[in-house]
Amino acid sequence: TLPTISTLLLLLQTVVSGSRHEPGYCAFYDECGRNPSVGGSLIPPIVPCLNYSPARVLGPEHYQELKKVCPMLDRGEGQTTACCSVKQLKSLERSLMMSKALLNRCPSCADNFGHFHCISTCSPNQSVTINVTRTANITSQGTVREAVVAYQAYLSTSFADKAFDSCKSVRIPSTGGLAIGTMCGRYGSALCTPQRWYDFQGDSSNGLAPLDIDFRLIPEGVTGAVPAGIVPYNGTALGCNEKTPTGGEVCSCQDCQASCPVLPPPPALPAPFTIGGVDGYLVICATLLGFLILTERLIHPSEVTCIDRNSLVAQEFLGSWFQAWGTLIASHPFKVLLASAVVVGAFATGLMYIELTTDPVQLWSAPDSRARKEKDMHDKYFDPFFRTNQLILTAPGRPSYIYDSLIFGKQNFSGIISKDLILELLKLQTRIQSIEFWSDDLNRTASLKDVCFAPLNPSNPSLTDCAVNSLPQYFQNSVDNINKKVNMTKLGVTKEVDWKDHFIYCVKSSKRHFLLFSDILDCFNPAFIISHLSDDSYTNAEALILTFSLNNYPRENVKFNIAMEWEQRFLDILKEYQMSPGNPFTFAYMAERSLEDEINRTTAEDIPIFMISYAVIFVYISVALGEYTSFSRILVDSKFLVGLGGILVVGCSVLASMGFYAWIGIPSSLIILQVVPFLVLAVGADNIFIFVLEYQRDARRPNEKREEQIGRVLGNVAPSMLLCSVSESVCFFLGALSTMPAVRSFALYAALAVVLDFVLQMTAFVALLSLDCKRQDRNRCEVVCCITVKTPAPSKPNEGFLLPIMRKYYAPVLLHPVTRVIVMVVFITMLMSSIYLMLHVTVGLDQELAMPKGSYMLEYFKYLYAYFEVGVPTYFVTTKGFDFSKVMGMNAVCSSVGCDPFSLTQKIQYASEYPQRSYLAVPANSWVDDFIDWLNPGSGCCRLYTEGPDEGKFCNATSKRCGKCMEKPDNGVLRPNVTQFNRFLPDFLGNRPDLKCPKGGLGAYDKAVVRDENGEIIATRFMAYHTALTTSREFTAALKTARELAHNITLTMRKINDTPPDFEVFPYTVTYVFYEQYLTIVSEGVFIISLCLLPTFVVCCLLLGMDVRSGTLNLLTIIMITVDTVGVMTLWGIDYNAVALINLVTAVGISVEFVSHMTRSFALSIQPTHIERAKEATATMGSAVFAGVAMTNLPGIVVLAFAKAQLIQIFFFRLNLVITLLGLAHGLIFLPVLLSYFGPGINKAVLLRIQQAKGQLRELSSNSLPVYDNMTFENQ
User: Are 937 and 93 in contact (CB under 8 A)?
Assistant: First the structure.
C-alpha cells in the first residue's frame, strides 16, 4: 500500500542521509507502556514508542481529538498531520488537566502551557524539535518494543520567556499564592525562571511527567549548542493580555499585570506638622509658654456686691443646715448607726445576684458597637473563630548541615530540621492527641475528636480528621514514612532519597492549603508549621510550629467545658514536658484559655497586695488622726476606732453601690473591685481628715454641748465636703455616657459609691465621732473602754505638728515674691511641655501587658513576634441581598478571566500589593473563582453520571461512566446560568478535594457560603491574611484600612442591578472587637473627661454663690493636672487606653480633692490681702489635704509596686503615683500661688457680717464705742 511504500522510502532516505531530524517526520509514535524507571507517579507514566516515521494524516475522530487537545496544530480536517496517536492525545490531555486546573483561570497561560507539550508530542515536525537521548525495551502484551524514556526538547528563549511571563502571576484563589510556585520545584515563585519552570515540567520525579525531558532554551541566532538538523521551536506564545486563537478572553488583572487598569499610586502619607523644619506643636507650645510668662500681671477684680451677697447666702444656708444636721446625728449616734447598717445591709443583699464580667469582649466592646455587631453576625452564620492551642519550638545550638538531593540539588538544613527532632515532635504530638478524660457532661470518656475542628468531617470526626498543623503531617504522622528510603533515578543518575527530599517537595508542592484539613492531605502551606529565614528557604527553618484547633463553643454549651478541660490537660502535658531532662527543644506554648487563666490567676495572687495596701492606709489613718498630747494619753487620744470606722464607711459605700447595681442587673468587673474602693478611700479619707482635724483644732464655746460643737464644726466643713463629693459624683455619672462597657460600669459604680460615702460620712461617721468624743471626754482608752486615764486633757485645742509647720515655714516660703514667679514659670512650662507630649502619647494596649511578670504567655508572645510570618486571617463578609447567581454578580466578585477589574477580590488584590499601607499580606481566596474553575470541563471536577441509577447526578473526579457538567464556551469565559449555579453550588461545597480535583470546596469553602431554605445566599466570606501584626497601633491601623477597603467594595457592589441599598461588605477577624475602641478612644476620652470637668466648674460656682472666678481657677488647675498626667504618661511609657482612661477619670475626681477644698478656703478667707489669704488657706486646708489625700494615697500606691500583674504596676502604681504627686504639687504649690495672683477678692459681705457680730458683742459687754477688726482690706 501507499503508506508502506512511503515508510520504506523514508527508512531508505534516513539510511542514506544519516539524519534523523527532518521536517514532516516523527521521532516517536503511539504508546509502548509504563516507564520502568518512574515510580509513585500521580498519573500512569505511559511512554511513547521510538518510531522515526512521517507524520500521519489524521482521520475524522483523530482530528477532532487533536483539535480539542492541541488546537494550535489544527490545519483543517483532512489537511492536518501529526506525530501522536489518539491514545497519546488522551494521555496528554490527562497529564495537562491537573496542571491546567490551576492555570485555566488565565486562558492564554493555559494555552501557552500546553502549547509546547503539544509540539513535542504531536507536531508533524517533531523530529526537528526533539532529540531522543535514552530508550528502554518494554514488554507489552508479549511484545517487546523500544520506548523513549528521555529526550531533549529545543525551544527558543523568546517563546519560553513569553510563555513564562503569561503564567508567572496566575494565582490560586484558595490560598492567594502563585500557581507558578507549585510548578518550579525547589525554587518556588520567588526564584522561578523560564528554565527552572520547564526543568520542573520535564522532571519525571514531579509525579506528572511520564519521562525525563531535558528542555534546552536557545537564544535566537545561537547554533553552536544545537545538533545538526534541530531547529528550536519559535512559535507564537500569547501574552496574558491577549485573547487566545480559540476565542478565550484576556486574563484578569489579578493574574496578569498587563491587563490591569492604570491605577494611581496610593496618596502619600501626610507629612508631619512642622514650622521651619521643627515640630510644629513644639513651636506653638514654646511660643505660648513665652507669651504666658511675659504677660504675667496682677488682676484687680471689680467689686461685685451681688456675688458677695450670693456667696454669703449660700454659705450661711449650707452651714446652718449642716450644723443642725450634725447636732441631730451626734445626739442619737446609736440610732443612726443602726439605721445606717440596715440601709447598707439592704443594698448589700443585692450582691447575691452580682455578675462578674471577665470576658474581654463584654468588657471593652459595647453590644451596639459596630465591631460587636459584625462579630455577632459572623459568629451567627459562620461559627465563632476556632480555638487555638499552639507550640513554637526551637533547638538552639544544633548545627546546620548540607544535604545533596538528587531531585533538588544541594540544600542547607538548619539543625531543627533533623530526623530525630521530627520524631520527637511526632511523639509529643501523639501524646497530646491521645488525651482522654472522663466527662460528666457526656457521661463517657472524652477526647480530642469530641471538640476538634474537623472541616472535612465535622459531623463525626476521627482523630485523623482533626485539624493539626505540624511538620509530621507531611509524613502522615507515620514513623515508617519518616524512616522510609527509596532509590530514584533522574537523568540517568540513581540515588537514594529519604525524608529530606519529601520535606523539600512538600514545602514546594502544588498541594498547599491554608487550612490543614487532615493528615490525609500530607502537604499544606509551610508558613503555618515552619518559621524560616527568607522567602521559600524552609530548610533553613528557625522554629517549628505545632497547632491544635478546636471548635469554639458558646459558654453554655456542654462541649465548652470539655474543650476547657482538654486545653488544661494540654497545658499540663507541656509544663511537664518542658521540665523533663530529655526535652531537646526550647519552646513556648499557649492554649485558648491561657489569657483568661493568667489574668484570673494574677488577680487572685494580687488580692493580698491590695489588702496590704488597704491595711497600710488604715494604719496611717488611725495613727494620723490621733492628737497625742502626752504619752500617758496615747490610748485616749488615738483614733483607731475612728480610722476603722472611716474605712468601714468606705467599704460599706462600695458594697452598697455594688449591691444596688447587682439588684438592677448591671454587671461588675475586676477593675471595679480593684479601683473603686481605692478611689472612694482616697476621696473619703480626705473628708474624714478635714472633719476630724477641724474638730481637733476647734475650741468648744462656753455652755456648748459636745453634740452642738460637732454640729457647728460639721457646718463649717461639710459645704466643702459637699462641693467635692457632688463634683466627683456628677463627674462619674457623666462618665457613664462612655460607650465602653468597662468604663461605663466603673463610672456608675464609682459615682454611686461616692454619693453613698458622703451620705454615710454625714450620718454614720458623725455618729461614730460623737461616740468617740464622749469616750475621749471621759478619758477612757480606745478598745479597752473600761480603763480610765487620770491625765487630764489639755485646755487648748491641738493643732498637731503639720499645721504649725505649714503656717510658719511652708506658706511663707511658697508665697515669697521670688518663689511665686518661679512656681508660675515652672508650672506653665510643665503645662506646655505636657501639651506637646500629650500629642505624642501612644494609643493602645499590647496584649502581653495583661500578663503577669514570669507568665509563660510572655515567652509565647516573644516567640510569636519573632517566628510567625503570617498574620491573623481576616474575612470580608457580605450580607444578605447580593445575587451571586447572575453573571454580573459573579463578575463583581471574582478575579479570573472575564471578571470586573474592580471586583471584590481584585480590589483586595490591589490593596495587598501595598502591605505597608493596607496591612494585607495575602489576597483573599474566592469560592466564586474556584467554583467557576471547578465547573470548567478542563478541570475534570464537575461531572455527572451518564448511566445507571444515579444518571444525571453529580459524580466525583475518581468515578467512572461520567460526563462533564458544562461545555467550555468559545471565549473561555465560563459562567453558569442561575439554574446551573444553584444546582451545582451544593455539589462544589460538598466535594472533597483530592489529587484529581484540587478545586473541591469541602473544607475550604463549605462554611464560607450560607444559604437559606430557598437556596438564596444570605452570607458569605472571602478570607485574606493580614501581615504579621505585633503592636496595638498596627492592629488598629489594620482594622481602619480594612474597613476603608470594605466600604469601597460595598459602594461598588451596590451598583449591581437589584442590589439593595443596605447590602454591605465588612471585614472581620477575631481581634477587631478589641481594637475598635482605639479608633475613637482619643475623641471619646476628650469627651468623657470634658464632661467630668464640667461639674467641677458648675458645682464650685453654685456652692460658692455664683463665684465664677473661683470656679474658673478650680477648673484650670484640674485641667493642668489632667494634661500633665498624660504628658508624664508619654515620658514613662504608659499607653493611653481604656484602663488609662478609667484612671484619668479617677484623676479628675482625686484632683477635685486636692483643689476644691483649697479654693473654697481661699474664697471664704477674710484676711486682708491675697497673699495672706493664700497663706491661711495653705496652712489650714493645705495641711488637711496633705494629710488626708496625699499621705492616704501614697503608702497604698507604693505597695502596688510589688504586684505581679503588669497592668497593676503600670496603670495603678505608676499612673496613680503620677496622679497623686501631680495633684499634690498643683494643689499645694501651684494653686496657692495662682490664687495669690488671680484669686477672687475678699467677700465683703462675709467680712461685714463678722465685723457687725463682733461689734454687737463688744457693745453688749461694754458701753464703749464699737471697735472693728480687719478694717483694712484690699480694695480690689
Answer: no
Where would I find the H helices in 447-587? 479-483, 499-508, 558-579
Whether 881 is covered by a domain: the verdict is yes
* Residue 544, all three cell numbers: 517549628
- How far CA 765 is from CA of 619, 652, 689, 721, in Å, comes to 18, 12, 12, 13
Q: Estimate the crossing angle of helix 904-912 against helix 1032-1053, to 10 degrees.
A: 150
In 3-state terms the chain splits into helix, strand, coil percentages (rounded to 5) of 55, 15, 35
Integer Cα distance of 906 and 929 in angstroms:
11
Q: What local confidence, expressed as pLDDT, does residue 702 receive?
A: 85
What type of residue sits at position 988? Answer: F
Final residue in a domain of this structure, among 788, 818, 849: 788
Instruction: Say yes or no: 763 and 889 in one domain.
Output: no
pLDDT at 886: 93
> Cα–Cα distance between 452 and 249 in angstroms, integer?
44
Exposure string for 805-816, b = 16+ CB within 10 A, e = fewer = ebbeebbeebbe
Q: Count up the domains in the chain and report the number.
A: 5
Identify the H or E element spanning 494: strand 493-497
Residue 234 structural domain? 25-259
Q: Specify the pLDDT at position 366.
A: 82
**Whole-angstrom distance, CA of residue 118 vs CA of residue 96:** 10
Q: What are phi and psi of 188, to 5 degrees?
A: 65, -170
Q: What is the reported pLDDT for 1269? A: 40
Grid coordinates given for 698? 476647734
700 Cβ contact list (under 8 Å, min separation 6): 706, 709
Q: Which pLDDT belongs to residue 279?
A: 63
Alpha-helical runs (H) found in 49-106: 60-69, 86-103
Question: How many residues are present in the chain?
Answer: 1276
Instruction: Look up residue 913 and give its three cell numbers.
Output: 500589593
Q: Cα Rg for the chain, rounded, in angstroms? A: 42
DSSP state of 902: T
Q: What is the pLDDT, as a whole number, of residue 295?
A: 45
Residue 472: name the closest of 440, 431, 429 by CA: 429
CATH (domain of 322): 1.20.1640.10
Nearest to 183 by CA among 171, 174, 173, 196: 196
Q: Is 118 exposed, middle or buried (0-12, 13-18, 19+ CB in 10 A)?
A: buried
Q: Is 923 exposed, middle or buried (0-12, 13-18, 19+ CB in 10 A)?
A: buried
Q: Which of 748, 764, 788 is the last residue of a domain?
A: 788
286 within domain boundaries? no
Say whether 590 sits in a helix, a strand or coil.
Answer: strand
Residue 657 and residue 561 share a domain: no
C-alpha cell read off for 80: 492536518
Q: Are residues 45 and 168 in the same domain?
A: yes
Tell whether 986 and 1036 lie within a shared domain: yes
Q: Are residues 638 and 530 in the same domain?
A: no
Q: Which cell numbers hold the place of 420? A: 530525630
**Could you tell me if residue 853 is inside a domain?**
no
Q: CA–CA separation, 641 vs 194, rounded Å?
A: 90
Same structural domain, 877 and 1021:
yes
Q: What is the C-alpha separation between 94 and 96, in angstroms, rounded?
A: 6
Q: How many CA atoms lie within 13 A of 834 on its CB side?
A: 19
Backbone angles phi and psi of 322, in degrees to 5: -70, -30
Q: What is the DSSP string of 229-291?
A: T---B---PPPTTS--TT-PPPPPTTT-GGGS---PPPPPPPPP-EETTEEHHHHHHHHHHHH
Same domain for 1020 and 1047, yes or no, is: yes
3-state secondary structure of 645: helix
Residues of the chain with pLDDT under 70: 1-19, 40, 175-176, 186, 269-314, 490-492, 508-524, 532-536, 628-632, 790, 793-800, 1103-1106, 1243-1276
Give the pLDDT of residue 763: 93
Candidates 1239, 1000, 948; CA nearest to 1117 is 1239
Say yes or no: 1129 and 1211 in one domain: yes
